[in-house]
Design a protein that fits this description.
The protein is α+β, with helices and mostly antiparallel strands. It folds into two domains: 37 residues; 55 residues, no CATH class. Helices cover 38% and strands 32% of the residues. The strands form four sheets. The chain has a two-stranded antiparallel sheet. Strands 3-8 form a two-stranded antiparallel ribbon. A two-stranded antiparallel sheet has the order 4-5. Strand 6 and strand 7 form a beta hairpin.
Length: 94
């Protein structure tokens, strides 16, 4: 009786483990794509103190080209330079 039970359950267990692995792999790939799409972008805030005028935020932009990365009226840049007095290297929308 135990042998018949094991023979019946083993294929079912293999299928369940395979499906679980497939879903886990797909979820990991989707998370990786989401992480690649977002990056730190800096926008300039003149009212902040010197040295803190370039404020970092995660934005869905890239460095490849296209329309300038402007979200909610803020233009985003890749690099804070000159001791935080200005932001340079524009980012672009995906």
């Amino acid at each position: 009786m135990k042998t018949n039970f094991k023979r019946a359950i083993m294929p079912f267990a293999v299928v369940v483990l395979g499906a679980a692995a497939a879903f886990a792999t797909n979820a990991a790939k989707q998370n990786q794509k989401a992480d690649e799409a977002a990056m730190f972008g800096y926008h300039y805030v003149a009212s902040n103190p010197v040295g803190n005028r370039c404020v970092a935020e995660w934005v869905p932009c890239n460095t490849e080209g296209g329309p300038v990365c402007t979200i909610a009226g803020k233009t985003y840049y890749r690099i804070p330079t000159v001791n935080g007095l200005q932001c340079t290297s524009q980012l672009f929308l995906d």
